[in-house]
Amino acid sequence: MKVLVAGIGNIFFGDDAFGVEVAQRLLQRRLPEGVVVKDFGIRGLELTYALTDGWGAAILLDAAPRGGAPGTLYVLDTSNTSAAPELDPHEMHPARVLAMAREIGKAPKIVRVVGCEPASASEMEMGLSPQVAAAIDPACALVEELLAELR
Q: Which of 39, 85, 121, 136, CA to CA, is 20 to 30 A from 29?
């Protein structure tokens, strides 16, 4: 099965860079055949179109403020998420990207988000907080577990 692993985030917004950092770390690992890891950063429209390229599944990597302790990892199943597909390239969070991909073409049926609770995601703050930095390797292991489940 072809699987897209997509890093999402803004490296200038502190912990918002979580997805980008995980993607960069995964690119250094040996992953199963058919798995493509790509750092999309803040290019939500590019990710939207990429999701329509015939992937069997997608794993999105992103900061996910859900009220937990900073550095907490989450796996969210967004396979059936439907959000209004508003076109705002500056506000392209995963639910909106998925909705748009479903509107314009064939998006993967299986979509998971590996998210991390940020400590901060402020404008013009470079670098991850210690809690989120410590979650990068566990997040990579979590992605590898999800890939094994998809096989």
A: 121
Please count the helices (runs of H) and the strands (runs of E) in the chain: 5, 5
At 59, which amino acid appears? I
Please give the model's pTM, rounded to 2 decimal places. 0.87
Number of residues that make up the chain: 151
Q: What share of the chain is helix, strand, coil (3-state, %, to 5)?
A: 35, 25, 45
How high is the pLDDT of residue 92?
A: 57
Neighbour-count burial for 88-110, b at 16+ CB within 10 Å, e otherwise: eeeebebbbbbbbbbeeeebbeb
Short-list 129, 96, 104, CA closest to 52: 104
Give Dmax (Cα) for the chain: 40
**How do residues 5-37 score in pLDDT, each as one tens digit?**
999 999 999 999 999 999 999 999 999 999 999
